[in-house]
Amino acid sequence: MSGISNKAAIVGLHESPLRKAPGVHPFRIMMDSVNAALGDAGLTVDDVDGLCVASGDWAEGGAVESVTEFADYAGITPTWFNGTDVGGCSYIVHAGHAAAAIATGMADVVVITYAACPRWWPLDTPSFDPFVLPAGPGQFELPYDPTLISTYALMAQRHISEYGTKSEQLAEIAVTFRRHADHNPQAKMHGPLTIDDVLSSPMVASPLHKFDCCLVTDGGGAIVMTSAERARDLRRKPVYLTGFGSAVRRTQISQIPEDLSTPARVSGKRAFDMAGLGHADIDVAQLYDAFTITPLLALEDLGFCRRGEGGDFVSDGNLGIGGALPCNTDGGGLSSNHPGKRGLFALIEGARQLRSEGPGVQVENAETALVHGLGGTFCASATAILTV
Amino acid sequence: MKPVIDNDSAPFWDRLKKRQLLIQRCPATGKYQWYPRGHSIYAPGVSPEWVEAKGTGTLFSYTVIHVGNTKRPPYNCAMVRLDEGVIMLSSLRDVDPTDMYVGLPLRVCFEPLDDEIDLPVFRPA
Q1: Residues of B with CB below 8 A from A162's CB?
Q2: What pLDDT, in 10s, does the model give residues A272-303?
Q3: Do residue A155 and residue B5 have CB atoms under 8 angstroms apart?
Q4: Is residue A178 situated within a structural domain?
Q5: Cα distance from B47 to chain A (closest Cα, Å)?
Q6: How far is B55 from chain A (nearest CA, A)?
Q7: How far is A199 from A55, CA to CA, in rounded Å?
């Protein structure tokens, strides 16, 4: 596996500035983003022979992703393609798979793209957890009508009860990322957010309030990857995929281990091992923030602090600029952009930080970024370590 | 939402009508497993056996849902740790949200989901 370390690089990227796109089909945003990312790299669609689209998820956020249908729409004939869909971290998974394809010569130029327009999407999308159907394993949970958010809420309540984590500490995460978003002209949310604002916002699923939850935006983006050799001849500073790990474990919330450990423990260790780096080497992190509990658990499972210490890690100011681990520097899914599957934007922002192009706050001279996402309700996870 | 019952899960749903909560045990290791499957997750190639759970446990975690799907909120979802050691998703009855706490002793009870299906839920023991 370490055979793919530094063999491939992100050479082009684009995050659509759209946050609300009434009447715009997601493929239009994907195509515009693909062309913009290719232009950023100094390539064109004629160079593309690899395509990653998280196919099969029709339920979440008005996405209509299909690797075949999008190839058709784009007018290309990719000979390497990947439709892996394990939820919001799928695009980080794609980056690892693309690096493997590039390292083995199966692909030369790979595009990873995503868009969704849940704000106007007119077709019915079931609002239950899209990873669970009331058949097979899901037949034992769906009769109780859990919502997607409620499964995160169950994790949050357990964390609060078991480790003494405070709702104020969860709120601090939203407050910090809003501070970052306030510098990002493209972020959906601006203006100050206080801990009181979070705690006094309506309860969605206790203990999670409205401002503990990510946004619902329309949006999309794209990333271009190629080999390290070719990357050095292109327009932009290559951002190398130095470490990568992924893991899938469970779907039903009842299967969460009693210590709440998630697949991030596995994916994170694999990424650090491949990169040959330690936690102190990470200059900036992008942690998928579907809900405030999500990055808190990630900090613990990735080993930035011990289980149960996430609340203190956050309230010590570590996630802001000047902290030990500046995090979600664009404002994250809580305050910048979240059409349903944020993994691609986390990857884009990780690369932007290493190119000193962060649209929100920028970590000076950042050379190593950790990008981490989860899928579903801690069902899957992917961790990438990027370097320049 | 109504469960889609299959051959492997039918005994579980059938016995709920007799007010019995079945879980599975691995005959090779003696370990319990939830949710029901056609195989033991502890011993390759071993079929699990059905056993009646004691029906007692403690509250592992809980949430009161204020923005719901098909049910009218507020309603709660609860993770219940049975005394056999497995955790199942369920829901609490006869307890005010302010009286819910992790570790609350619980006992199973049964309520109809519709004319055909009974559902195990829990109330304070």
Answers
A1: 102
A2: 999 999 999 999 999 999 999 999 999 999 99
A3: no
A4: no
A5: 17
A6: 16
A7: 37
Spatial distance between the Cα atoms of A235 and A229, rounded to a whole number of angstroms: 13
Question: Could you give the ipTM of this predicted complex?
Answer: 0.97
Report the chain B residue with the minimal C-alpha distance to residue A207. B63
Query: Using the beta-carbon criterion (under 8 Å), do A140 and B67 form an inter-chain contact?
Result: no
User: How many domains does chain A contain in total?
Assistant: 1
Any CB–CB contact under 8 A between B34 and chain A? Answer: yes
B70 has a chain A CB within 8 A of its CB: yes
Tell me whether residues B66 and A162 touch, CB distance under 8 A.
Answer: no
As given in the structure block, the two tokens for residue A45 are 């669609």
**Nearest by Cα to A230 from A96, A39, A42:** A42
Q: pLDDT by residue (tens digit) across A84-105?
A: 988 899 999 999 999 999 999 9
- Asked, for residue A138, whether it belongs to a domain, the answer is no
Which chain A residues have any C-beta within 8 angstroms of a chain B C-beta?
Answer: 127-128, 133-137, 139-147, 149-150, 153-155, 157-158, 161-162, 202-207, 252-256, 258
The domain that contains A308 carries what CATH number?
A: 3.40.47.10
Residue ranges covered by each domain of chain B:
10-124
pTM for this one?
A: 0.96
Nearest-angstrom CA–CA distance, A348 and A37? 10
CA B74 to each of CA A198, A205, A281, A322, B65: distance values in angstroms, whole numbers, following the listed order: 20, 9, 46, 41, 5
What top-level class would CATH report for the domain B10-124? Answer: mainly beta
Range of the domain at A269: 2-124+214-387
